[in-house]
Structures are given as structure tokens and as C-alpha cells.
Amino acid sequence: MRSLFNVIKLMLIEKKDIVIAVICGFIAGISSVGLFAASGYLISKSALIPPFYTLIILTSAVKLLGLVKAGAKYGERLYSHRATFTILSNLRVAFFEKLTPLVPNVFHKYRSGDLLARVVGDVESLQNFFLRVFYPPIVLLLVFISTILFTSFYSIQIAVILIIGFLLTTIIIPALFTLRQVKINGRVRNERGHLSTYITEMMFGFRDLKLFQQLQIKQNHLLNQSEAYITQQKAENINKISSQSFNGFITFVVSWFVLAIGAYLVTTGTLEGVFLAMLVMISLTVFESAAPMAVFPVYMQESKDATQRLYEVIEDPDIQSIGTQSSIYKLADKAPALTFKEIQFTYQGDWRTIITNLTLSIPAKSKVAIVGASGSGKSTLLQIILKLIQVQKGTVNWDAHDTASIADEAIWEKTKVVLQENHFFYGTIRENLQLAGNDLTDDVLKDALYKVNLEHFSLDQPVLENAENLSGGERQRLAIARAFLKNGHLWLLDEPTSSLDSLTEQTIYQNLFEAAEQDTLILVSHRLQGLDKMDTIIVMDQGNIIESGSYQELMFKEGYFYQMKMLEESLL
Ligand SMILES: Nc1ncnc2c1ncn2[C@@H]1O[C@H](COP(=O)(O)OP(=O)(O)OP(=O)(O)O)[C@@H](O)[C@H]1O
Predict the structure, then answer these.
(1) How confident is the model at residue 196 (pLDDT cuts 50, 70, 90)?
(2) Do residues 87 and 216 both lie within one domain?
(3) Burial of 292 by CB count in 10 Å (0-12 exposed, 13-18 middle, 19+ buried)?
(4) Global confidence as pTM
């Protein structure tokens, strides 16, 4: 329920449109009741052959009320829908603002398909919260109170029947259907989450599934999941229609009661016969406004579940950032020195300590290579520098500042990064390079392509989703070109040339070192060739540094690095 209050708070930003929608809704409802009441009275009165002007007044009132009703209904629709779309957009923005700082932690717990279902489906379903849950009861209450007061002026008994009908159609019957709806809604949402998870996973892994000949099995899972979702959707709709039909039935029963009691009151002389048709018409019309209440519980429950699922992610204590308040938003425009002091890191939900008590100092402008066995924590160390993950113990300093007090964006602004996996967007080479800066000219972009031996690429060349149309080596070179274009004086390169042939690798490294001459550079590499150019080589094993020094020092020491180098040379 607390999540729903958060949504209401966001909704109230649009209070002007909400108030206008409520006023228009009330005018439309009350003029509809007035229109039918006047028609009923006109029919009865005509039978008594009244003076001509009475008929003119009544007919004009009917016409006027008809016009007012149409105008007010239009106003209600216009303002309520305008409010709804603005509320949805506010909601999306608020949700994204809270979700983005939780990336990548959020993926440790939630699968991308499930997140997509929440971001798209759950936010979308909240359009019904305002349109069918929040404001219709306010309009309904206002219309009913006015109508019952008007009716009680003619007959208290009929006013009491209307009150009973009101309680039945707006509270008792919807409450009964709500009980069923609670269970069904939870199931619909879960099945939808599972279905989109299956679909996204299948799309991502389509090629592998084909190669491993597992596509049919996964397809069958998907079809079963789709069936399960459809079954729950059917149950949901049956409950919705049953609630509407039952409510409609009750409103007719109430109108029959009004007619029967009214007729009785006419025979006893308590009610003038000329008002009977008017009261029956009032009863038939006023319950029209109660019709939305039949679907109220469905949408109320749906909204509660949707907000709960949305806020469950962004308020999940397991994935909250544990960072301290940032006080530094801008870093100096120079090569930084990095210092790690007794840092310790464990991935969320993992029992292994990945980085153990690591202490390291990287002077400004130095060129450092990190080598070591696969899984020894090299990439994890780069992620710690980038504040994509945060150490549980120890400190990481950027010059004299603890990175915990530096805003993430300030660090990203000053780093040039090539990760093992780099994402490319659907578009052109130009658009993907301009990720490094929108104002980069074509000449600058072409120069970057030249430095990574991709001068034969045209900037308008298309890039498909996930750069499917580029080879592994081309993707790596494009990522390096992007790093060339980006501002910053700290290079973080995680096996940037692992898919390249030695000749291309050599040329690119030459250009890289030239460009990074005045910068700090950290290179994670499995290949040990060319490391003699580095100032320091750090050898990692099981989350700690087991050796460090210059190339000559390590070779002289004949330790772990020396063994690795000898092994590599024997394989060449
Ligand atoms: N997101 C994650 N969640 C949990 N564990 C992870 C995650 N990423 C990496 N690990 C684990 O952390 C350990 C260190 O991984 P890391 O990627 O830092 O190693 P690495 O030295 O860069 O390996 P490689 O040379 O193969 O790239 C590995 O055992 C890996 O399984």
C-alpha cells in the first residue's frame, strides 16, 4: 500500500487536470441524471395536457441538459486522459531515475526479461489507476449524494432504496469480487514476468540453442509458459466480466424495486403519480455512473500489484548502492595516481572473497599491466576503480581523494575504458563512435578509425544490434577507437586486443602508447608479449598480488611471471 501512496504523490503533481476532470465528470453525471429525470417528468406531464409553455420549458431543459452532458463528458475525457499520460510519463522518469544507480547490482537478483516486464507492463498497467481507480469513486460519490438528496425531496423510501443499491453496487459486490481478483492478479503478473524472461533469454541465446540443438525444447517451454499466461488472463477477464454483469443485474433489480415501491406509494397517495416515471428514470441513470465500480476492484488490485512489483526492485535492500555521499563532482584534468589500501571484495550473494586484502600504488602517468590466471580478479579490480562495484573493506584513492567520496560520473568522465565485452548500438559507425562525444567531427572520427586500422570503414556503415555484422576483432578495434575519442587521463583496458592478430595488435599498441604518454594506463592482459614497455607488471592470483615489478625485475627474479613467460614462449 505504501508503494501506491508513492504513486499517488507523483500523480498529484497533475492536480489541476485532476480537479478539472473531477468537476467535468460530476457535471456530466448529474446532467445525465437530470436529462433522464426531465424526460421522465416530460412524458408523464404531457399525458396530463399541461399548458404549452410547460412543455416548451421541459423540452428546452432536456435539450440543454443533453448539450451540457456531452460537453462535460468531452472535458472529462480530455483532462482525465491528459492527466493519465502525463502521470505515466512522470512515473517512468521517476522509476528510471531510481533504477539506473542500481545497475549493475540489479542484474544479480533480477533477470532482464523480468525487469522489462516491470518497466513496460507494470508501468503501463498503472494508467488504469487514475482512470478507473482514483477519480471515478469521487465523481460517483458526488453524483449519488446529489441525486439521493434530490430524490428524498419526493420520497424517502425511494431514496433509501437508492442508498441500498449504491452500497451494493459500489462496495459489497466489488468487495466480493476483489477477494477472487487478488489471487488471480498475482498469478497473471508472475506468469507475464516468466514469459518475458523466457522470450528475452531465448532471443539472446537463439544461435547457441540452435547449435546445441536445444531450440525445440526451449520453444516448448516457451509455449507452455505462454499457455499458462493465457489461462491466467482468461481467468482475470472472466472475473472482470462476471463482476460487471452481476453489478448490472443488481442495478436493474434496484430500478424494479423503485418502480414497485413508487407504484405502491402512488396508490397510497404518498407520491404524486406524475413523478413516478421521473424517479424510475433517475434510478436507471444514476447507476450508470456506478458501472465503473464493477471493474474498480480489478484495477485496484492490478495497480497495487504493479506498484509493489516496481518498488520491490528499486527499494530492494539487497541491491542498494552502499556508497557514501559523494562530495566531489569534478576531478582535476590530469593523469591520476591510484592507491588501493587493504581492499576486500565479495560479489553479492557469493561466498568467495574475490579480492583479498590487496594493497597497491599506481603513480600518475605510469603504465601498469595486470596479468594472472583466469578468474584471479583482474577485471574485478578495474570495475572497482570504475565504481561499478564497491569494496566492502579498505579504500581506493584517486589522487588524494577516497573514491567513495567521488561521484561515479566524475570518475567515468575522466576514464577511457575498453572492457572485455563492449556494447554497440544499432545504428551507424558514426553514431557508435559519437558515444564518446556528440560534437566530434567526421575528421576526428576518421582519425580514430585510422589509429585502430579501421580506415576502410565508412562512418555511415550500418551497425546491427550487438554489432552482429562486425567481427570480434573489428568490435575490439571499434571499442579502442571509441576510447581514443573519449576525454580523460586514465586508460583502463581489459584485454583490448585479445581477438587481434599480432601485427595489428602491435600497430594499435604503438598508437595507444603514443596517445597515453601523459596519462595513467592500466592494461589487463593474458598475452605477455610487449609488456617490457610497461613501467610495472602486477601478477595476480586468487584475488591478491603475488608479484610485482618492472619486466626486467620479474624476469630476473625467475618467479611466477618468468614461468608464465617461458611457457608462452615455448608455445609460440
Ligand atoms: N558478476 C559477478 N558475480 C559473481 N561472481 C563474479 C562476477 N563477475 C566475476 N565473478 C567471479 O569473480 C572471479 C574473478 O573474476 P574476474 O572477471 O575479475 O577475473 P579475471 O581475472 O578478470 O578473469 P579473466 O582473465 O578470465 O577475465 C571469478 O571467479 C568470477 O567467477
Answers:
(1) confident
(2) yes
(3) buried
(4) 0.69
Query: In this model, does residue 323 exceed pLDDT 70?
Result: no
Which ipTM score applies to this complex? 0.97
Task: Decide if 342 contacts 357 (C-beta within 8 A).
Answer: yes
User: From the alpha carbon of 495, which atom of ligand 1 is closest?
Assistant: 27
Q: Do residues 291 and 252 lie in contact, with contact meaning Cβ atoms separated by under 8 Å?
A: no
Going from the Cα of 347 to the center of ligand 1, the distance in angstroms, rounded, reads: 9
Give the pLDDT score at 52: 79
Flag whether 431 is in a domain. yes
CATH number at residue 413: 3.40.50.300
Task: Record the cell numbers describing residue 549, joined without a space.
Answer: 615489478
Residues in contact with ligand 1 by the CB-under-6-Å rule are: 347, 350, 354, 374-380
Please tell me the distance between residue 433's alpha carbon and the centre of ligand 1 in angstroms: 28
**SS3 of residue 415 by DSSP:** strand
Give the chain's mean pLDDT.
Answer: 89
pLDDT beyond 70 at 227: yes
Of 233-237, 290-294, 327-331, 396-400, minimum mean pLDDT range: 290-294
Sheet order of strands, 338-345 included: 355-362, 338-345, 393-398, 401-402
Pair type for strands 367-372 and 520-524? parallel
Domain span at residue 379 reads 338-571
**Cα of 521 to ligand 1 centre, how many Å?**
21
**Residue among 109, 378, 523 whose CB has most ligand 1 atoms within 8 A, to mutate:** 378
